[in-house]
Amino acid sequence: MLNAKINLICYFASFITAFFTRKILLDHLGAEFIGFTGTVGSLLSFLNLAELGIGTAIGYVLYKPIADGDKFKINEVISVLGYLYRIIGLAILSLGIIGSLFLPLIFNDTTIPLGVIYFAFYAYLASSLLGYFANYRATLLSADQRNYIVTGYFQATTTGKVILQMTFAIYFKSFIIYLSVELFFGIINSIILNWKINKTYPWLKSDIKCGHLLLKKYPEIIKYIKQIFAHKVGWVIQAQLSPILIYYFASLPIVALYTNYTLLTQRIESLISATINSAGAAIGNLIAEGNKENTLKVFKELLALRMFITTIVTACIYEFLPQFIELWLGKQYILGNATGTLIAILCGLNITRGAIDQFNHAFGLYGDIWAPYIECTITIVFAIIGGQAWGLPGILLGSLISTITINYIWKPYYLFSRGFKKNCIIYWRIFITHLIIATMAYIISIYFYDYVIKPFISATGWIGLIIEGALYLLTIALVNFAGFFITSKGFRDICSRLKFSIKQKHH
User: Fold this and answer.
1) Distance CA 499, CA 505 (A)
2) Which is nearest to 467 in space by CA: 449, 479, 483?
3) Which residue, among 108, 131, 126, 128, has the nearest Cα to 36 in the 3D structure?
4) Phi, psi of 482 (to 5 degrees)
């Protein structure tokens, strides 16, 4: 609950800060410079793919010693992490230096001075490398269900950084000052974070020099790193496929229209992930305790919660996203009804699949390294067929088919057969039951809203959209809640758990 609350607060703080400062930075530093810093950030994000999934692998290995209170083993695992991150950090530094030689070619058509370009690149590179050389112990906070500490301090320093950058931009309009503040706050965040780690874990004494020898003691770490890296590459490919396919089979303007929609749906997904995904470490620790029945019970609760949220989100996106786009950008930016429907469904599927993903990660089930590549292949094959026949809806249909095949057929089977070691029929019984409830709730709420509430709404424009959206959200939330609460034990259990947590905090 604490992780979820802090994540939610920080998400909105980040969103609001960015909303108010973006225009000021654009006005006083220029769109070219802001676009340049975004491009540099993207280049360094690509370099960070060299991380290989080490942090995720170490996080999984830490669940058991944390549950057992084995401080000696925790020190050993963190020492291994420090050693591996030292190697990765040096590799990224080397790649960054080599890549910097090509900066004049990459940014050959910009008016930004070459000195500023190099200063920006190395300032962002230095900030990134702090995670590998100084902040690697923060992985323990995440695995120990204390990620709210990392999130809280990061958001506090980020908010201070952005406000200071905005102020200096107004008064000095200096690129160098902007970049210096960026680097300075990266260092400040690192100092504060390590101070908090030392205070929280005074017994934590990692020894990077021993990490190489200790790595032989934990061969499972290398195994998980190889598996997770294969998944990471597949995920990156999958994430970049849709815009490329849309451009190839439709046009560049259609890509722009599509990204207007996905920009909003991804924000919604991120908002929900910021709260529900905070249970990831708790699930890992729960599994490490070895209570299989309780673990399955919690899975049923989280699946019910996600499907409850998915019903509301999918229905609201389908009903109101086109109206929002029309008011925000204009009627010419609205996509067809079939495309809007598929976007809403895909958004809902991405939210619901999180339950399966969280438990697969917590069980350390990364062995299906072929899965993301099969998902990419299915997407491409069906997108080619559908794209030629129906354009953008056909391309999205390819994504829908691949998502269902891998994430809703294979992944649940993999989880139940290898993780829970139970028949996957348990999952399908729960999923189909909740899907029927969600469908009925949507039908009832849409009829009730259209014939009972909507005729009394006369406002138009943004005011009308806000009123309609709020009333529709309330209607489907209440109908959906009643349906889930009456028919779903998992949903009743998660409601009781949340109610108990709130009472405990109050007392």
Assistant:
1) 10
2) 449
3) 108
4) -60, -45
Residue type, 367: G
Spatial CA neighbour of 297 closest among 405, 289, 504, 1: 289
C-alpha–C-alpha distance, residues 150 and 235, integer Å: 25
Q: Is 374 exposed, middle or buried (0-12, 13-18, 19+ CB in 10 A)?
A: middle
Is residue 141 a contact partner of residue 197, using CB atoms and an 8 Å limit? yes
List Cβ neighbours of 163 (8 Å cut-off, separation of 6 or more). 17, 21
pTM over 0.85, yes/no: no
Would residue 488 be called left, alpha or beta, if left means φ above 0 and alpha means ψ between -120 and 50 degrees?
beta
**Alpha-carbon span 420 to 455, nearest angstrom:** 50
How many angstroms separate the CA atoms of 341 and 362, rounded? Answer: 32
What is the spatial distance between Cα 501 and Cα 499, in angstroms, rounded to a whole number?
Answer: 5
205: left (phi > 0), else alpha (psi -120 to 50), else beta? Answer: beta
- What distance separates the 2 farthest-apart alpha carbons in the chain? 73
Walk along the chain (507 residues) and give the pLDDT tens digit of each residue. Answer: 777 777 778 777 777 776 677 678 778 888 788 778 877 876 777 676 666 677 878 888 888 898 888 999 999 999 998 999 898 889 989 999 999 999 999 888 788 899 999 999 999 999 989 988 888 898 888 888 888 888 888 888 888 898 899 899 899 889 999 999 999 999 999 999 999 999 999 999 888 888 888 888 888 888 888 888 778 777 767 766 676 777 677 666 777 678 778 878 887 887 787 777 777 677 887 888 888 888 999 999 999 999 999 999 999 999 999 998 888 878 888 888 999 999 999 999 999 998 898 899 888 888 888 998 898 889 889 888 988 888 889 889 988 999 999 999 999 999 999 999 999 999 999 999 999 999 999 999 989 888 888 888 877 888 988 999 999 999 999 999 999 999 999 999 999 888 877 666 655
**Closest of 82, 78, 209 to residue 140, by C-alpha:** 78
84/224 Cα distance (integer angstroms): 13
Angular region, 112: left φ>0, alpha ψ -120 to 50, beta rest: beta
Task: State the burial class of residue 230 (Cβ atoms within 10 Å of its Cβ: 0-12, 13-18, 19+).
Answer: buried
Instruction: Give the distance from CA 155 to its chain's centroid.
Output: 16
Closest C-alpha to 367, from 410, 403, 425, 404: 410
Cα-based torsion angle of the residue sequence 171, 177, 183, 189 in order, rounded to the nearest 10 degrees: -20
Q: What is the rounded CA–CA span in Å between residue 310 and residue 272? A: 10
DSSP string, 462-485: HHHHHHHHHHHHHHHHHHHHHHHH
